[in-house]
Amino acid sequence: MKQVLLLGDSIRMQYQKPLGEKLAGVAEISGPEENGRWSGYTLNSLRFWLPQLPSPDLVQWNCGLWDMGDDYREGRHFYPPDLYEETCRRICRILRKFTGKPDLQIVIATTTPTLHGDHADIRLYNSILEKVAAEESAVINDLYSVVSPARAQMIGEDRIHLTPAGIEAVASHTAAVLRPLLSGARDGQQ
């Protein structure tokens, strides 16, 4: 059976189990028990997580909301766009190097919307993910477009995390993106 590794923040943690149920019989889904937080944290943690998890046939990852944050109120992103872009490229390269699979199928999920602000930052960071995906021969799983049209129903009271309807929509969409890739199809961006 194929092995899928999911990496990412708390949104990934929300849909990981339902995704596993949707891909039962096709793939086993695994991921670290901890939150991947921001891109630099995920990059640094690969050396600890990968040896503890099954060798993946496909990896889907996302980092974004933490990178965009201004938690220290400095008037800047925690990881500015140029550093985010460099780190995202490195995540792809390190995944392939560390697994010993230079052709490892990588899927990069876009950052989901929130109920805060105008989403200019999310769109900017998602455009960086699209650029990195094109350069690193990865596939984009556009979760932003899945959630955005029905944000009021798919994002919960904390204005960030998914509701049960959001989790279902994201898990279903992700299963539809991953299923053909797991059967050997590599037909570019979804």
The CATH superfamily is identified as SGNH hydrolase
- Label the structural class: alpha/beta
Please give the alpha-carbon distance between the first and last residues.
Answer: 23 Å
Portion of residues within helices = 40-55%
- Specify the number of helices: 8
Share of residues in strands: 5-15%
Structure characterization notes:
The chain has one domain (2-182): Rossmann fold (3-Layer(aba) Sandwich). Helices cover 48% and strands 13% of the residues. The protein is built from 8 helices and 5 strands. The chain has helices at 10-22, 39-49, 65-68, 81-99, 120-135, 143-147, 151-154, 164-182; strands spanning 2-8, 27-30, 58-62, 105-109, 139-141. The protein has a 5-stranded parallel β-sheet with strand order 2-1-3-4-5, with helices on both faces. Helix 4 packs parallel to helix 5 (120-135).
Short description:
The chain is of the alpha/beta class and 190 residues long. Helices cover 48% and strands 13% of the residues. It has a single domain (2-182), classed as SGNH hydrolase (Rossmann fold).
